[in-house]
Amino acid sequence: MASLKTHNCNKCDYSFVGSGKPDALMRGPTIPVVCLKCSEIYDRIIHSPIGEKLKGKCEECGSKKYTEWDYKLKKCPQCEDGIIVESDWGVSIMAD
Ligand SMILES: [Zn+2]
Ligand SMILES: [Zn+2]
User: Fold this and answer.
1) pTM above 0.85?
2) How far apart are CA 4 and CA 92, in angstroms?
3) Residue 20 above 60 pLDDT?
4) C-alpha 46 – ligand 2 centre gap (Å)
5) For the CA of 78, the nearest ligand
6) Dihedral angle at the C-alpha atoms of 60, 65, 70, 71, nearest 10 degrees?
């Protein structure tokens, strides 16, 4: 069980809903990654426990190219020096 939170940039309008850190969903462990095409952060399954072929891709643009998002630095992928913060008031969705 993972809890997805709204994350907002403190400098621009960017926000995403996701775990924002390495986590585990029912389908396998995930890490937060940044899409190289549209700079969207999303949780990507990195390993399937049942050996399923992974077809992770960006939900925004469908690109399979990504880079790991540094969840400790929390830099915004969409502006110069924004920092991504977990929203206090945002949606919290329980996902499995
Ligand atoms: Zn930003
Ligand atoms: Zn994308």
Assistant:
1) no
2) 6
3) yes
4) 17
5) 1
6) 40
Q: Per-residue pLDDT tens for 21-80?
A: 999 877 789 999 999 999 999 999 988 878 878 778 898 999 999 999 999 999 999 998
What secondary structure, in 3-state letters, does 25-92 show?
A: ECCEEEEEEEECCCCCEEEEECCCCCCCCCCCCCCCCCCCCEEECCCCCCECCCCCCCEEEECCCCCE
SS3 15: strand
- Compute the distance from residue 18 Cα to the ligand 2 centre, in Å: 15
Number of neighbouring beta carbons within 10 Å of residue 89? 7
**Ligand minimally distant from the alpha carbon of residue 38:** 2
> Counting ligands in written order, which one lies closest to the CA of residue 77?
1
Among the residue ranges 1-15, 58-72, 80-94, the one predicted with the least confidence is: 80-94
